[in-house]
Each structure stands twice: as structure tokens, then as C-alpha cells.
């Protein structure tokens, strides 16, 4: 038994954010790729976990190839000051569990991995660490991109997957080794401190220049565009019911507020104060530079809601487009050069 004074000393020793007096300490490790996850998932997850009483310390193992003068990395010190950042070359295929152990020193109760692209190098190292640390949960940020849709939408978690995808191999290694494993499959993500803007910029780029917005097919295809803070909330929701999370293992990951391609264009036009000149073209001509798929490709988060009690998104695209458009202007979106050659190829194929 440890007494209260010792417990306080233990709590104080953690780099953590413990808000409640508790004898149990739970450390979280987030393994984060160089892009930060295109919607800065590790950053948003660290923010979310900072206010979760179950988590007493947070460490980000950050791929050192990130650019510290870009978001979200430049906000690490101001927005998540209590989070310990450790950097390493996560692309180094010679990385092993021992390397990770040396880097971190500690072991961790909860791991979120948004960096490993397969079951070798960093991936195997993280998986093996989860085993040797006897971690309570290893949560992997996979991708809905591994689905091979078979015509059922929203795509259920049982949709066939591309077995050869690196993510699928990571998942297989985790399951085969009996790890307490959960895998989320996010779709399209946007966020305030993102470093990837091309999905929604596609629409503003054309609208603010009074250029037509090419959309393949009839524009009624639906897309799941999710604010990164809501994706982080999904990733954190494993802590609501850890055994249900492990039992189900695979979760779709996105907002429940689906929008059609035409709706994205119209909402962007409204925010930019222009009329949307949407031009549907024959999808057999291909994607050109259209940011989404030619056909439907969406999921619903029903499984996360029912099994993990996920409380749903707190953001929606329509409202977010206001700050998004301000950021578009601040990033020089109005004045940058835009190459519309590919647009012309699909809008007037006969003339090129
Ligand atoms: C990092 O980002 C800054 C700001 O966007 C840029 O000026 C710089 O060239 C980048 N550095 C590298 C190494 O890419
Ligand atoms: C991290 O998250 C992003 C967003 O879904 C995803 O594109 C990326 O593949 C993720 N996973 C890994 C293992 O890097
Ligand atoms: C953090 O995630 C939890 C679990 O899903 C959620 O209940 C909570 O609302 C999230 N916090 C924020 C600020 O989004």
C-alpha cells in the first residue's frame, strides 16, 4: 500500500495533467507521422486527452521529419504545453522495440499510432512495445482507403479490404499477436491547424475566380468530411469502454453529417458570397483534379456510437466553412496562380 503523501508525490512526478486525485496513473503515447496526420490528429488527440481524467501523462513520439515552423507542430509548445515531445526518424526501417524503449525510457498504458504504415520498422517496434509494456490498449489510425467497396453505403466495418495494404498488415500482426487492439478508419479530414487543405480549397479556388466547378457524375455522391477535433474525439472514445473497443476492433471514423459534392460546392459559394457555377461532367473522363472519389465512398460512425458511446461530432462543415474561408484568404488562396488545364479537359473534352 502507498499512502496519500506518496501518491501525491507520484502524481506530481508525472508530467501529467491529473485533475482528480487518483492512485492510478495512466500514461498515453501518441506516435505521430511527419505530416501530423493530414488533419493534425495527434495534436488534436493530445488536446482531447489533456482533459480526460483517466489520462495522467501524454507523450508524443513525433517523426523528426516534421517541419516545426508549420502547423500543427509550431503550436505544440503553446497549445499542448504539458505534453512531452520526443522526436525520432520514424521512417528508419531498422527501428526496433528496443530503439523505441531507449528513446522513451518509460512504458505506456495507452498507445495511439498514427505513423506506422505497416508491420515492419516503426510499426513492428510499436506493436512489440505494446506487448512488452502490457499496454491496456493500442489504437491504430488506419484509413477507410483500405476498403474495397462492394456497393453498400454507408460502408460497414465488414466491407472487404485490400489485404496487401500496409495498414492491413499492421492490423493483422496486432490481431495475430493477441494485442488489446482497436483500429479506426477515418475518411476525409480538415482542421484549423491542418497542413493539408486541398479537399476544400478545390471549391474555393474556382468559386472566388468565377470559374466553373467541375464535379464528376450528378453531384449527389456523398462525402464524409470531418473536423479533426471530432476525429480525435472518436479516437479518444475507446477510453469510454475499453473492452467493447477491443471486442469490436474495427471502427469507421467520421462525422454522421454527410454532404453531397454539390452541397459542398454550394456551401462554399455561400460563404464566399458568389454563385456556384457547378458543372457536372461524365465521370468516365476521370477525376482530373477533383479531390474526392468519382463514386460514393462514405461510412457512418454508428458502430462507434453504439459500442463506445461516442457522443457525436461537435463541429459541422457549414459553420466551419467561415473560419476555413478566412484561412483560405490568409494562405493567399485568392491570389495564387491556378492551373485549370485539367478542368478544361473534362469540361470540354471535344476541344482539347
Ligand atoms: C518549413 O516551413 C517553412 C514555412 O512554411 C518554410 O519556409 C521552410 O522552407 C520549410 N522547411 C523545410 C525544410 O521544408
Ligand atoms: C494517420 O491519419 C491520417 C488521417 O486519416 C491518415 O491519412 C494516415 O494514413 C494515418 N495513419 C498512419 C498510420 O499514418
Ligand atoms: C474528447 O473525446 C471524448 C470521447 O469521445 C468526447 O466525449 C469529448 O467531448 C471530446 N472532447 C472534445 C473537447 O471534443
TrEMBL record:
Describe the location of the NAD-dependent epimerase/dehydratase domain by residue ranges: 36-254
SUPFAM superfamilies recorded: NAD(P)-binding Rossmann-fold domains
> What family classification does the UniProt entry report for this protein?
Belongs to the NAD(P)-dependent epimerase/dehydratase family.
Read off the InterPro entries from this record. Epimerase_deHydtase, NAD(P)-bd_dom_sf, NAD(P)_epim/dehydratase
Q: Where does this protein have coiled-coil stretches?
A: none
Q: Which residues form the signal peptide?
A: 1-20
- Protein name in UniProt: NAD-dependent epimerase/dehydratase domain-containing protein
Question: What are the alphabetically sorted keywords of the record?
Answer: Signal
Answer yes or no on keyword Ligase: no
Amino acid at each position: 500500500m502507498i499512502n496519500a503523501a506518496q501518491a501525491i508525490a507520484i502524481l506530481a512526478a508525472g508530467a501529467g495533467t491529473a485533475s482528480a486525485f487518483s492512485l492510478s496513473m495512466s500514461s498515453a503515447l501518441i506516435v505521430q507521422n511527419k505530416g501530423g496526420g493530414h488533419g493534425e490528429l495527434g495534436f488534436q488527440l493530445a488536446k482531447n486527452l489533456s482533459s480526460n481524467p483517466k489520462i495522467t501523462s501524454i507523450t508524443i513520439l513525433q517523426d523528426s521529419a516534421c517541419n516545426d515552423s508549420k502547423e500543427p507542430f509550431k503550436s505544440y509548445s503553446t497549445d499542448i504545453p504539458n505534453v512531452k515531445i520526443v522526436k525520432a526518424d520514424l521512417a528508419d526501417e531498422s527501428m526496433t522495440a528496443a530503439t523505441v524503449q531507449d528513446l522513451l525510457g518509460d512504458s505506456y498504458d495507452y498507445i495511439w499510432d498514427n505513423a506506422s504504415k505497416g508491420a515492419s520498422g516503426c510499426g513492428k517496434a510499436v506493436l512489440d512495445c505494446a506487448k512488452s509494456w502490457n499496454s491496456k490498449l493500442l489504437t491504430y489510425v488506419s484509413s477507410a482507403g483500405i476498403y474495397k467497396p462492394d456497393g453498400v453505403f454507408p460502408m460497414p466495418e465488414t466491407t472487404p479490404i485490400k489485404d496487401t495494404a500496409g495498414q492491413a498488415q499492421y492490423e493483422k500482426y496486432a490481431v495475430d499477436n493477441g494485442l488489446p487492439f482497436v483500429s479506426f478508419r477515418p475518411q476525409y479530414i480538415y482542421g484549423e491547424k491542418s497542413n493539408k487543405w486541398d479537399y476544400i480549397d478545390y471549391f474555393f479556388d474556382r468559386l472566388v475566380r468565377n470559374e466553373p466547378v467541375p464535379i464528376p457524375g450528378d453531384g449527389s455522391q456523398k462525402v464524409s468530411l470531418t473536423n479533426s477535433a471530432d476525429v480525435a474525439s472518436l479516437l479518444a472514445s475507446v477510453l469510454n469502454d475499453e473492452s467493447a473497443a477491443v471486442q469490436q476492433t474495427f471502427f469507421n471514423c467520421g462525422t454522421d453529417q454527410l454532404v453531397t459534392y454539390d452541397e459542398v460546392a454550394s456551401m462554399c459559394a455561400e460563404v464566399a458570397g458568389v454563385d456556384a457555377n457547378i458543372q457536372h461532367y461524365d465521370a468516365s473522363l476521370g477525376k482530373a483534379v477533383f479531390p474526392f472519389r468519382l463514386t460514393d465512398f462514405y461510412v457512418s460512425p454508428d458502430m462507434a456510437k453504439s459500442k463506445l458511446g461516442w457522443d457525436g461530432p461537435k463541429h459541422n462543415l457549414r459553420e466551419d466553412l467561415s473560419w476555413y474561408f478566412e484561412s483560405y484568404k490568409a494562405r493567399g488562396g485568392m491570389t495564387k496562380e491556378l492551373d485549370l488545364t485539367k478542368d478544361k479537359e473534362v469540361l470540354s473534352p471535344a476541344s482539347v
